[in-house]
Structure formats: structure tokens, C-alpha cells
Amino acid sequence: VQLQASGGGLVQAGGSLRLSCAASGRTFSSYVMAWFRQAPGKEREFVSAIGRNGGITDYADSVQGRFTISRDNAKNTVYLQMSSLKPEDTAVYYCAAASRAIDSRVLARYDFWGQGTLVTVSS
Questions:
Q1: CA distances from 80 to 21, 84, 108 (A)
Q2: Which of left, alpha, beta for 103 (phi over 0: left; psi -120 to 50: alpha)?
Q3: What Å distances lie between residue 44 and 40, 91, 96, CA to CA?
């Protein structure tokens, strides 16, 4: 499956952005989907994941209550609604797909990655 992330940009602290990740192929609904991010000079880290039918979601503590992950299997798209953004949210955000629904916070579990979209939050 190929993933194409979009929606990044420059936003002031306290603002909102919605990221989208469009997937190719007919098997999108068979994948656990997730968002990771990588800030300059730091390792890529887990942000959020969503189960195959959208019924189960998981969030990193740093974004819990501010970010919402969702998916539309009919459109082969996963979203990340980001609110109350902080400068420390500045990073390149990557969407990822995993065929196995275990250890969804572990980067190595993901089989496919998008190209990333840059989110910059100014103070």
C-alpha cells in the first residue's frame, strides 16, 4: 500500500490543523493505521493509532485530549485532528500502516510509511 500524507503547515500556538493520509489499494481496512512524528534532532515517536474499523484508538500522553485520530475506510483515508497546538508539536508527521494489530506504538511494527508532512507551531 502507498501512503500520501498532507495537511501540514505553519500555525500559531493554540491553533488547529487536520492531517490526512490517503492510501492506495483495496485493502486499507485491513491495516492498523498510525501517526508518528519526528522533531529535528530527535527520534521518530508514536503519536496515535487506530484499529481497523476505527473502534479502538490510542494516543501518546503528550497529545491525549488535544489530538483525535479517525479513519474513513470508504475513502481509504486516516486523519489526525490536532488542536491546542504547542511549539513542541513541531515535527514532520508520518502516517504508517501495519498489517498486524500488536504493539501499535512500536515503530518497527509498521510495514508501510508515508512521506511525511511538516507541522510548524510558532509561539
A1: 9, 13, 21
A2: left
A3: 10, 9, 12
> Residue 10 corresponds to which amino acid?
L
Inter-residue contact 85 to 11 (CB < 8 Å)? yes
Percentage, residues of the chain above pLDDT 90:
94
Q: Which residue has the cell 473502534?
A: 55
How do residues 27-59 score in pLDDT, each as one tens digit?
A: 999 999 999 999 999 999 999 999 999 999 999
Neighbours of 66 (CB within 10 A): 15
CA 77 to chain CA centroid, Å, is: 11
Residue 1 CA: distances (Å) to CA of 48, 52, 111: 19, 15, 9
Closest to 101 in 3D by CA, of 31, 3, 28: 31
